[in-house]
């Protein structure tokens, strides 16, 4: 990939730390955010529109803030027009370094979710991966893409492109993987397009670990989630996928919309196994299509999620807990955010019954993710 920078937005501000809580920096702005584990500078860059303001870190290609602009016509909002941050994130790099396993907003790879036994076979060869989740590999292991600082190659007021090269053997994965991620804002829509190329046969599964809270803080219990999927992969207590099941048979039906406070406490074995929802749904259809819709009727906010991935991991933050303040000084607790992660199916490298995640030289793996935000006045 062409790694020559084409950064056309404003120069990086020397003022370290966070932008103002209530007012985002102008689209195209950039400011120093801190330093990564290697001592390198981390920068926060702003893209946006009149309706949506998004802050992206070059560390992990991380979605740090997603702010909606709205007026106060809805009874569930405060007085006056303003911005509401609906993404979970930390106020500075200290939080991300102290809690890397929270994965707040990171671009996850080289393989999102779990690979059983931290190993897989490809073309007759056994590949052993980082075992960073008990005996299993999770989210690319100890050197996942979310833990690296990416190169910014283009920044405009509405778009940001970042690139990263993951070398052969990173996390145990074979082949060099060149990844390009492009964030774009148009109106109230945020889109992420990711391209991956390799120089040797490998497996790839990328996603965004964006945590959403449409209230701007507190519990997600009043949120309503709809997922158009008739099938789901069951999981065991360690999150390893099992059989493909009918959602009604295992008590995980979200097709008509379900209040998350009820769904994550539903008295069925699958919910009890992982303390909430942490399940790979298999949405109907292929290509870019709706995979989820999340709303908070009491505040008049919602988001429609579209993707071209075969599965959607629904995670209700069952073990989410941080001792470092996030946005607004919040100490995040279990159930304070929901991650809707379109992705390759977990453990697909070890299962012939799931869509293949293999990427070979000469191929390009393109993945698209879209969040269509909305606000209402009733």
TrEMBL record:
The active site is at 209 (proton donor), 341 (proton acceptor). It comes from the Bacteria. Keywords: Carbohydrate metabolism, Isomerase. One of its GO terms (biological process) is glucose metabolic process. GO terms for cellular component: cytoplasm. Beta-D-galactose binds at residues 113-114, 209-211, 278. The keyword Ribonucleoprotein does not apply. Transmembrane segments: none annotated. Pathway: Carbohydrate metabolism; hexose metabolism. Pfam families: Aldose_epim. Residues 1-32 are annotated as: Disordered. Its EC number is 5.1.3.3. GO terms for molecular function: aldose 1-epimerase activity; carbohydrate binding. InterPro entries: Aldose_1-epimerase, Aldose_1/G6P_1-epimerase, Gal_mutarotase_sf_dom, Galactose_mutarotase-like, GH-type_carb-bd. Belongs to the aldose epimerase family. This is Aldose 1-epimerase. It comes from Tersicoccus phoenicis. The lineage of its organism: Bacteria, Bacillati, Actinomycetota, Actinomycetes, Micrococcales.
